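Entry:
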Amino acid sequence: MSTGADPGAGAAPSLGGYRLLRLLGRGGVGEVYEALHADGQRVALKTFRLPSDELGLAAEAFEREAELGRRLVHPGIVRMLGGGSDGEHVFLAMEYVDGHDLRRHTVRSALLPLPRVLEIASQVAGALAAAHALGVVHRDITPGNVLIEDGSGAVKVTDFGLARLGDAFHSRTGIVAGTPAYMAPEQLAEGAIGPGTDLYALGVLVFELLTGRLPFEASSLGQLLQLVGRQTAPRVDTLRPDIPAAVAALVAELLEPRLDRRPASAGAVAGRFARCAAASGAERLSG
């Protein structure tokens, strides 16, 4: 990582023309910073450090992914702004969202009200529909990749394309494509990936937001593979009897192990969740 133009004491580090302001998060393969471009634009900068012999290939792939990301223009998708390399790092610059992700709402003490969960599910499905229409599959829909903007409450899906980059590099760099607990059976089995794969992950996400637990909980990847491959996920209303039957049925459809039994499109799922949210909100007001 290089330093800024002023080499004096206290100069903030920079990367690819972005001045790094503060660390937002750190994962197994990289870091995320709040950063400032030379033109004054504030961004979220995702950085990955790779071996020198991988940098050329990685930089090309990140630039391609950034270009693809720029085509994904939707209010529910975090905008991709650019990508490239600087020294031993490759990076992706994304729209900065001043808010938090959904991980805090996956514990039972901090679950969101049912209508809000259904609104979020509808908006995530709508963002997926826009991406799928362009032939883009997210592959890693998790609570950490769904952001809630402070103030407005807007829902934004982030990290489109990063899981696909993992497909390109996982055998050489250790980047893993996806998060196992949210993967559909076909993804865990390294089979064909498509829109239905994202819908399964959405089902896991909604299940977790409603119950504070995952549909399948395993101590190892091998055990998870066996559970997902051999068992049907529990219905959400067996854990929360207050969940309307229509909501439980939709979540069960999303968690169908067979791809051909899941809903046909993210757009249809968005509409169904929106109708459930409206019905749930009206019932709460009249109760």
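The domain at 99-286 is CATH 1.10.510.10 (Transferase(Phosphotransferase); domain 1).
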